[in-house]
Predict the 3D structure of the following.
Amino acid sequence: MIRLTNISKIYQTGDIETVALNKVNLEIINGDFVAIMGPSGSGKSTMMHILGLLDNPTSGSYQLDGREVGNLSEDELAQIRNRKIGFVFQSFNLLARTSALKNVMLPMMYAGIPKSERAIKASELLKLVELGDRMDHTPSQLSGGQQQRVAIARSLAIDPVIILADEPTGNLATAQSQEIMAIFQDLNQQGKTIVMITHEPEVAKFAKRTIILRDGQIMDDNMKGNTKHV
Amino acid sequence: MSSFNEILSSALEALGLQKTRTALAILGIVIGIGAVIGLVSIGESAKLAVENQVSSLGSNLLTVSPSSQSSGGVRSANAVTTLTLEDAEAIKTDSSINTVSRVSPELSRRTQILNGKNNTNTQVVGAVPDYLAIHNLTIESGNFISQKDIDNNNKVAVLGPQVVSDLFGENNNVIGQNIRINRISFKIIGITTAKGGSGFQNQDDMVFIPLSTAQKSVFGSKSLSSIALEAKDKSQIVEAQDQVGYLLLKRHKLNDPTQADFSIISQQDITNIASQVTGTLTTLLTGIAAISLLVGGIGIMNIMLVTVAERTREIGLRKALGARRKVITAQFLTEATVLTLIGGIVGMFLGVILSYIISRLMNYPFTISSKSIILAISVSTLIGIIFGWFPAQKAAKLSPIEALRYE
């Protein structure tokens, strides 16, 4: 459960103030699958950073899983990111020269989970994304789609409350994009909450709900139910 | 929080990925630690060598030397002839002196000596029979100067082995042959045993003649260049110094000890001075080596800053995934410390090898102290922490957004 109340983010560059988010109110219920769309400069990325606790809002309240997280210290934010948020990035952001298995184990290391347990959980997750036979491969030995599947496995490592995907198919070919979106849809059907930022309408169609941002405000909030792409 | 083992293994992994850079980065530390360890242990060896050498000159030895008399801050220039044979006799016989077992009056100068066409410039010492015992010398072949030689002003000479080889080369059968000192012919009656050693007061490179002959025929001087004394016991050295000083002041009719026209130096004094000199040199050289260590540390800091910049995205990702500042700091601090520690250990071996080679070349005893091992390890660890701190902090303070955006 996510609740944003009057969230604003203002960037100050010298004397110039840029309002990236302007008093945004938003509620995302558990099990939802939300696509956030909008032209560049609309505040999509800022929204993503604030939802992902990578940045603090200038004002407003952010409740994640029933807890106010609007203004916490850097280390507290790191801990909550670790326990409650799974990230999937456009450019995968896997550790190069590190095996798929170890990449998936990384968040569990920061959570203090014992090493043996990490390996078991990570290999289960890699099997889930159909990479059971490529656990020892490094990112450079995997295709883009496979790398993104490793990243999804990593985002699931600590059973997050929410999966945040920032243009997850932005660097992928169409076939691979479909694969990735199918995985997200599966996860959503299993009850995972997914928030995805995208500028591709075909990708947004996989979501249950589409939010359109413009000039830091929500212009359109469209619940359309699960309309599967054909 | 991940365990230390994991941080360490990931540090080793990261360093292993950039082998050339890692090797170059630690080179500064290797050279720095190597130089410090090498110089410290060479310094210790040199000190030991000096102590050995000084004590080989004679045990419980005191040396009385003439010195210029100073009055009212003005030193007179021509006062190096203040010690006489009578002074030496007085020390030997005066009732106030009960701590001195042997007395050896000496008159020595550097002089040209000749054997046919061969010549050498060496220390010619006018000596008495007690010289041998006081200076820990022994006779290899023939005899030393006897009381009879002194009484009769005999023109006889005892040669150090160095002088023999300088004048006669490989020919060892020199006893009975003649050499010329100051155009006076002397008959060789003995050769002293080689003592080895080098540097100051090399007793292998001396020629001994009777003191009476030296004073009357060779140097034409009634004075002495020094009086060597042997204290009865090590514990009586200071007392002997006082007794002899008092007697000589009285004999020279001086009231104020600061006006003394002689000085008495004990073996211990010489050892102290020599140790002080080598100690100062060692400190100076080690200081210079420490500067290279500092430069090495700055090199490590530079490399770590490059590493942090290169891995900005990785740091951002780790932070996004939940790494706290402490963890990032620990990761980069460990990498820096592992770098310097490897450098320290390699440098330590280098330093030990260096000091081994130099002590072999200089004929010093080779010592390797646990102190230098502890020094190498602790100093290199410390350098890693000090110079790794700033880059590690820089990494820990990166904002995850900025870091993830970084191309």
User: Anything to note?
Assistant: Chain A touches chain B through 24 residues (CB under 8 Å).
